[in-house]
Amino acid sequence: MTLAPEALQAVLxxxxxxxxxxxxxxxPLARRVGEWLxxxxxxxxxxxxxxxxxNVEFVLRNGEYWAIECLSPSAFxxxxxxxxxxxxxxxxxxxxxxxSLEELVKNINEVAFxxxxxxxQNA
Length: 123
Known about the structure:
Strand content: 25-35%
Mean pLDDT: 83
Oligomer: single chain
Helix content: 25-40%
Distance between the termini: 17 Å
Strand order of the largest sheet: 1-2-3-4-5
Number of strands: 5
Shape: globular
Radius of gyration: 14 Å
Low-confidence stretches: 118-123
């Protein structure tokens, strides 16, 4: 299964504006992204999913942790968490432009649905 950017765009388009103040949109935005991921979780590697504030965090079957920061309907950040013992460290070191919605969905597909690896293996 591969998620489509248009599907997430449709979920986010209802009542959210890309030029809105982030304090007005961050919580509903993250909640919508989390609900969309949860609804499409079947066939993914996601075993746990949490939404809080402007963040969506998920855990994969292999134990990897990932976070998505929902900054606006057109700006996101996605990065891994590092597990040491019982603690997850979120480095949140960002050295590039924010991800577009299309880039976010591509990254989610690569990480949680392993589409890049499957496509490579089938080539």
